[in-house]
Every structure is written in structure tokens, then in C-alpha cells.
Amino acid sequence: MSRKYKIRDQTKPYFVTLTIVQWVDVFTRNEYRNIFMDSLRYCIANKGLEVYAYCIMTNHVHLIIGTHGEDLQSILRDLKKFTSVKIIKAIEDNQLESRKHWMLWIFRRSGEQNPNNEKYQFWLQHNHPIEIQTIEVAMQKLQYIHENPVKAGFVSEPEAYLYSSAGDYSGRKGLLDIDFLY
Fold it and tell me: How far apart are CA 109 and CA 22, in angstroms?
């Protein structure tokens, strides 16, 4: 079955959302967020990923990304595959993870329902990519990403949220080297 949202033009930036199955709140722990951040850094350094904006929420990640290397679909596929394996392993090994058995049960159950998986499914398969064609769309998506933690009640100002590029856009160096939009 074809999906309406596809990455068609590798020269354009895209707004994508990576969502954890069943909206499980995995990214409440820095250990798991840092695995994702390290993976983004690897893709930037080794695969040609361009990150224009990001925000890691508790159960999903918003990105505005592009590429000057590998095709974007392949980068996203590899990023999701690697982070799912690494984060699930970190959950399994974390003796202090009070939600370990519940989360692994959810990921196993989701994996069993999808023939593309061997054991677990961590991410939903579709990223809903939206091509950034105009500066107006870019600014709207950028504001949406950065306002997410404010709307969730985590912070009162977007730039106060550590796992976001909002600080970079307000003049403070963030956790990730980003490429600025326009």
C-alpha cells in the first residue's frame, strides 16, 4: 500500500516525527535520550545527515532534517534500526528500570504483530515526512517543534528545554551541532 507522505526530493529539508509504539514514554530517562542523540551525531558525521531542528519528547521525536550524503530514507531507516536495538538493550540491562518488563512486553507484542520484525518493534514504521518548500512552512514547523515541551508543561520557555534545538535558535549552544534553516 502506498503512503501519501514520502521523501521525494533529496535536496529539500523534511519535517518528520519518529514515534515509539503505543506512545510508550521511553525518553523520560536521559540514558535513552542520550542514545538517540549519539546516534544523530553519528549520522551527521558519517552519513551526511543535516539536522535543522529537533525535539525529543517522552514518546516521540520531531526533526527537520536533510541530507548531503546518503538518501534520507536510508538514514532514517538505519537510525531507527540502530536506536531501537540499542535502547531496548539498555532497557533490558537497566537494573533500576521500574518499567522494564512492561515496556519489553509492549515492544515484543508490537513486534509479533508486524512480520517485518524478528522480536521487538520500538518505533512506528511511518515518519510522516513533510517537505519544507517555503520559509513560511519552515518557520511554522520550527515553532511547532520548539513549542512542544511548553505545551506539554515541561518548561515555560522553549529554549529552557535541553533536548531541543530551541536554545540554538535563541543564541545558546545546544547538545547537537545543527544547521540553521534559511
Answer: 10
Cell of 138: 519552515
pTM recorded for the entire structure: 0.94
Is 44:50 a contact under the CB 8 Å cutoff? yes
139, three cell numbers: 518557520
3-state SS, residue 88: helix
**Alpha-carbon 111 to chain mean position:** 19
CB 24 within 8 A of CB 103: yes
- CB contact at 8 A, 105 and 120: no
Burial 17-35 (b: 16+ CB within 10 A, else e): bbbbbeebebbebeebbeb
Instruction: Give 122-154 pLDDT, tens digit per residue.
Output: 999 999 999 999 999 999 999 999 999 999 999
Helix (H, G, I), strand (E, B) or coil at 49: strand
